Amino acid sequence: MERLMQWLQPLSDRFEDPESIQLAFASLLGLAIFALLIAVMFVVMGLSDPLRRRLRSLEASGASGTANAETGLREWLGPMGERLVPTEEEARSRIALELRRAGKRSPGAVNLFFGVRLLLTVVPPILLLLVVVPFVRLEPVVSVMLVAGSAIAGYLLPRFWLERAIKRRTRLLRRGLPDALDLLVVCSEAGLGLAAAIQRVARDLEISHPELAEELHLFGLQTRAGMDNKAALRDLEERTGVDDIRGLVTTLLQSMRFGTSIAMTLRLFAVELRDKRTQEAEEKAAKVSTKMLFPLIFCVFPSFFVVALGPPLLGAMAALAGR
């Protein structure tokens, strides 16, 4: 912090002059207006393009179960984000894969992500410059730092949301995998094939574990569309990104390759997964005592000492004062 204040000291000394303050405010206001015009130009160019308008209408008509609010956001923010999508195929594929792992598989999810990032980067600084800075007396350095901080926070917020969404969906998928494995073992031992068993399990898990049921249902759609079971399993592994599902896919692919019983393979993997979960639970239970040490020392013990030793100390002080 001291180094930052030393770096900003010449800037604050320069802004002590009223003319410099007016010039800085006019520059920030002009930059905000320029950014707003660029954003409006992106919106107008995207909305006026008949090809993109037709593609968006086809996406909206072909997507089932999509909320109206999400469709409206895609129509407004998609054209803005399309200009910001990375041109490198590797970066674009990485963002698309992360959105798929977060549960966003619509065709315009990447454009919507970058459109939201542009909106959160541009709009809060503009609002600060037009609403807060002119009517609140702040130091010029504080105003500049506030505007820059809001822009940086708006740029990083979509990435933070994406990482949280991936972690949440991964946790839900891992939570529903043991039940799915038990049902797969029962269906396989009853004589169903792998694709039929997965479709039946997807129907049974729609209420208890909807995220995992959605992934398994998509696997069934891919196999019914003509995709090979191995390719569909690889795609399931890639779009979920869960280690347990990766291990299950590897086990099933090895069983298909060597011709062993799928039911026996699933039963053995279910036993291994159950042992792994038991070990993870024991590890977390062993860490509880260490994690509870700091709350006990800093929260429980001070209050206990006050309650236990407070009255005797007060009595001793009163006795000494009376003597």
TrEMBL record:
<feature type="transmembrane region" description="Helical">
    <location>
        <begin position="292"/>
        <end position="314"/>
    </location>
</feature>
<keyword id="KW-1133">Transmembrane helix</keyword>
<feature type="transmembrane region" description="Helical">
    <location>
        <begin position="109"/>
        <end position="135"/>
    </location>
</feature>
<protein>
    <submittedName>
        <fullName>Type II secretion system F family protein</fullName>
    </submittedName>
</protein>
<keyword id="KW-0472">Membrane</keyword>
<feature type="transmembrane region" description="Helical">
    <location>
        <begin position="141"/>
        <end position="162"/>
    </location>
</feature>
<keyword id="KW-0812">Transmembrane</keyword>
<dbReference type="Pfam" id="PF00482">
    <property type="entry name" value="T2SSF"/>
</dbReference>
<dbReference type="InterPro" id="IPR018076">
    <property type="entry name" value="T2SS_GspF_dom"/>
</dbReference>
<feature type="transmembrane region" description="Helical">
    <location>
        <begin position="20"/>
        <end position="47"/>
    </location>
</feature>
<feature type="domain" description="Type II secretion system protein GspF">
    <location>
        <begin position="181"/>
        <end position="309"/>
    </location>
</feature>
<keyword id="KW-1003">Cell membrane</keyword>
